[in-house]
Specification:
alpha/beta, TIM Barrel
Length: 344
């Protein structure tokens, strides 16, 4: 089970937290997307076989077994109806020895308790979608350079570095590897960075039979509509903070049953936005990242996470995933609620 709040604070109250916060940015601008390469998929398979052969991963404490015919949003509505809130582990759940956006880190997270995984996506020069937050390799790997200028085979030579700067034995995984590992184990939210065409992410989800347990994070209405057009079933997370955005989605004919509402990162709760989204019967997600997480680190008062949950939020995104999880345990039995909403 998760370690104590005090131990987590000692682990997370470090310069690494500031580094993680500083590294986050939103996608901007347009890019030219190179054509996909068949050679890359062969390299991808070779690396996937090597990882599978060499790595033994722990299983989740509570596997995310989404019932046939249901999707992530159905699980979230079930949790909401049980007055339960789940934490989304930012970048898969970062801890000393477990770097961001690694399958091994995600497995370590879920072995301790049920959470949702938020993961970042970039695209290599030869068209392979991989897990990586930054445009470059410099901060999180033993390599350097722009990931969009390298092939997937090139990436195999580098190791991931944790937020303390320690080199780990883990390597950059492809999206296909992650989706296959997550089947029957995890609910994943995929943050599509600017080098990645959203249609390719949707295609990978469909090709890997991952619709039930995956959601695509989009930054703009245009990207959300492109994702919706690419497949009629894939779950879409989109920022919704006003009635105008809700009306635009309805006017475009997007089925609300496939939507998650990201209500942003704020310094304090925003119940007026949560109420607006809840009235549309869309699961509410909120970011405690940076501001609220930092305040908790400084004060040691974790009650804010319960306040957010009491306001109707179903998903809380946090860098202090176990601190938030343990705070929520004072108002709910997360394991029992997650089991009831997945093992059906």
């Amino acid at each position: 089970m998760p370690v104590s709040d005090s131990a987590r604070f000692l682990m997370l109250a470090s310069p690494a937290v500031a580094l993680l916060i500083a590294a986050c940015s939103e996608p901007v601008g347009e890019i030219e997307i190179p054509e996909r390469s068949e050679v890359a998929s062969e390299a991808e398979m070779r690396l996937a076989e090597a990882v599978q052969a060499e790595t033994s991963l722990p299983e989740p404490l509570v596997p995310a077994m989404v019932a046939e015919g249901q999707r992530t949003t159905d699980v979230l509505r079930c949790l909401r109806d049980r007055d339960a809130t789940i934490v989304s582990a930012h970048r898969g759940g970062v801890e000393p020895g477990f770097p961001e956006n690694a399958i091994e880190s995600a497995a370590n997270t879920l072995a301790q308790g049920p959470l949702i995984l938020e993961l970042d996506l970039r695209r290599t020069a030869d068209g392979v979608i991989v897990l990586m937050h930054d445009e470059t390799l410099d901060r999180t790997t033993t390599g350097t350079g722009d990931i969009s200028q390298m092939s997937f085979a090139d990436l195999a030579q580098f190791q991931l570095v944790d937020n303390e700067g320690e080199v780990t034995p883990y390597r950059i995984p492809s999206l296909s590897e992650v989706l296959n590992w997550a089947r029957g184990r995890a609910l994943v939210q995929l943050d599509v960075k600017r080098t990645v065409p959203v249609e390719e992410v949707v295609a990978s989800i469909v090709e890997n039979d991952a619709v039930a347990y995956s959601a695509v994070i989009t930054y703009t209405l245009e990207d959300a509509l492109r994702a919706a057009a690419a497949d009629e079933n894939v779950i879409i997370s989109i920022e919704i903070t006003d009635q105008e955005r809700l009306d635009a989605l309805q006017a475009a004919g997007v089925d609300r049953s496939r939507l998650m509402a990201w209500t942003g990162v704020h310094r304090e709760p925003v119940p007026e936005i949560w109420d607006l989204v809840a009235a549309a019967d869309i699961p509410v997600a909120f970011g405690a990242l940076w501001y609220i997480d930092s305040a908790v680190l400084e004060s040691g008062d974790t009650s804010i996470y319960r306040e957010i949950a009491d306001g109707g939020v179903t998903v809380i995104a946090s860098d202090l995933h176990w601190t938030a999880y343990e705070a929520l345990e004072e108002r709910q039995d997360t394991v029992a609620a997650f089991q009831a909403c997945t093992a059906r």
